Amino acid sequence: MSNQEQSGRRQSVFSVLWGTYIRNALIPIILIEVALIAAYLATNYLIRDENIATMQNSAQASLHETARLESEVIANQLAGVAEMTHLFAQLTSRAYDTPYEASDEEKGRYTLSDGGVWYTRPGSGEAAMFYSSITEVGEQQREKAWHLSQIDPVMAQLVESSALVTQAYLNTWDSMNRIYPDFDVVDQYPADLDVTKYNFYYEADAEHDPDRGVVWTDVYIDPAGQGWMASAIAPVYRRNSDFLEGVVGLDIRVSEIIGHVLSLSLPWQGYALLVDSTGTILAMPRVAEDDWQLHELTEHDYATAIEQDTFKPEEFNLFKRPDSQPLAEKIGAATSGIAELELNGREKLAAWAQIPGAGWHLLVVVDQEHIYADAHRLKERVDQIAIAMIVGLVLFYLLFILYLYRKSVRVSRRLSEPMIGLKQMIQSIGEGEYRPHKVETDITELNIVSTGLSEMGDALGHSRAQLADANKRLEKMNHELEQRVEARTSELQQANFTLSQEREEQARLISELKSTQAQLVQSEKMASVGVLATGVAHEINNPLTFVITNISILNDYAPTLMQLHEQVSQLVPAEKVDQLKAAEHRLRYAEIVDDMPDLLADCTEGVSRIRHITESLLEFSHAGDTSWQPCDINHCIETTLVICYHEYKYKAVIRKELDDQLPTIEAVPAQLNQVIMALVVNAAQSMEQMGEIRIRSGFTNDQIFFSVADTGCGMPKENLGRIFEPFFTTKDVGQGTGLGLAVAYGIVKAHGGRIEVDSTLGQGSCFTVVLPRVQS
């Protein structure tokens, strides 16, 4: 080999170092880093897919197990209630054939209402009994009710021994209801209640329950006022008899069963639903309302529930909703399982399990996006890390190549050892050792780099310590802030409660002020009318006296004139008799003679009626006289009927049943006249065709009473509590002010009395005023 060739192969230290690094270090490292990043990304995608599959299997198994376990808990609760119901039915059947004599104290609890209902008075703490008016209660029915009172301790024990059971009852074929605990059955039930038309009776009859076992009803609104209920019912037959004597039942509030279900803490922000055998959603948590586009029912219309069975609307039925019908079909085909469905545009995963006995299903629903959220977040984080790694590596190698290029010009062999030391320092810092051993070198640049790396490690260590301390302080501040927010929230809640109470008190005072103002206005109007009526009556009486006097004189003069005419007729010459008769015929003298007594009698009757009206008007018109004085209620009634005759003469016939021995009371007569007029006018206005108004009066030892009953249209029960409110009226706009009964109520209350109302829609109303004989 020639020297020239060797000279051509020679390279500078920089070229050797640079070329060697490029070929043997830099390029392999870059390729390895790229391969590692590619392997990292590929592995991440494979792991993510495997995680998603694992999560799906785990979620399905977890949801299915949750539904199964919770359904078993509910099934055990319902099984206990069903067993108690079966025992209740057996004891009741045995009670029918067991001799029993009720105590006198027990018999004394029963009474008969005005509507024909035989019932127990409330407040005794024992079982209540209600015998509907559709059954005529005779001695046989009374003996039956007293005989069955022997099951009262059984019902009390069943209710008090179970936290689920809220009521125990027996309904018989003739609409007798015996129920525990006690409440005012007459106020809650309609008088003509027919229990055989409700699901808690007919679902246990021979047609629906031929096996005579325990039956669970669908959820319904309880007519006894306990909200959404489900009943475990069982038929009662006598021994060796196929006649259904009645149905016993134990009521459980659905809220007692579903409270635990709604409070379940499920993974992936899931929630649970309770579905009955027909596919109706019994209960759902608030978080489920957006998915199902429903709002849970919390308000109850007991007035409708008393008249008929009341169930949830069709929107709550899975079989009748397009989005849940496939799921409902799968639930109906299998006792448990898992299915996918779409609700409100989102993919859901649902697991269900059947609750034996009641036929209900527990349904657990989870958003699939929440199940895979961790996997998606992990993928995004890995992608971000990969991008950061690639960018960091590119920047690092660019800087590093530039650094090597500049240093390779000046450094040869002495560069290798310091570079290794610097590399070790970098690795140590990267591994968390922020104070590595400093590399000592006589190369200024490398020594500066070594010093910089050491200072950087110190700075990173100090920053890391400060960051940890700052995190601790931040956690402490967050805890203190949460405590302050909780304290402030508690203060705001207390302030809101106080403000709510003040608003309620203000509304009550405003209502009382309106009532007082209305009564004052009405009293002022009556006083003004009284003054005007007094003046009118006096003005009528003056000329009326002349008319009465003149008619009396005419009654005396008429016979005299007739006698004079007869005497004149006898004195007329014979030739003038024909002329006299012709004149009498022309002037209709004979008709005048015949009609004169009747006309005078009619005039006398007319002026007598006018005199009676003016006297009654004067009697009634003392509205401004508010002095307390002895008052005859019968006289007030007679006077008022004359005054308001025009209000009822074409609408009703007055029937009076006034007690002749009624004593006087201490009262303001003018104000009581106003009360009587308001009740009579109200009765007349309630009649659309000719009817009857019956007015009665009577007394007891220390009270007198009078009542006004009509055969008008009556009032619905929901209006009875408001009829005495100022400005409340059921008439059309412009046909009533709503002040008459409100003012009457205020007057009776001021007299220390009360007004009792009994009204049946379509049959009429009866207002009874009870007043003390002596004011305290």
TrEMBL record:
The answer to keyword Coiled coil applying to this record is yes
| Entry's EC annotation | 2.7.13.3
Which chemical reaction does it catalyze?
Answer: ATP + protein L-histidine = ADP + protein N-phospho-L-histidine
| Membrane-protein topology | Multi-pass membrane protein
- Note the PROSITE patterns from the entry: HIS_KIN (PS50109)
Mention one GO molecular function.
phosphorelay sensor kinase activity
What are the alphabetically sorted keywords of the record? Cell membrane, Coiled coil, Kinase, Membrane, Phosphoprotein, Transferase, Transmembrane, Transmembrane helix
Indicate the transmembrane segments per the record.
21-42, 385-405
Q: Where is the Histidine kinase domain?
A: 535-775
Where is this protein localized, as stated in its record?
Cell membrane
Quote the SUPFAM superfamilies the UniProt record gives. ATPase domain of HSP90 chaperone/DNA topoisomerase II/histidine kinase (SSF55874), Homodimeric domain of signal transducing histidine kinase (SSF47384)
Coiled-coil regions listed: 460-519
| Any one annotated GO CC term | plasma membrane
Protein name (Swiss-Prot/TrEMBL): histidine kinase
Q: Which species is listed as the source? A: Marinobacterium lacunae
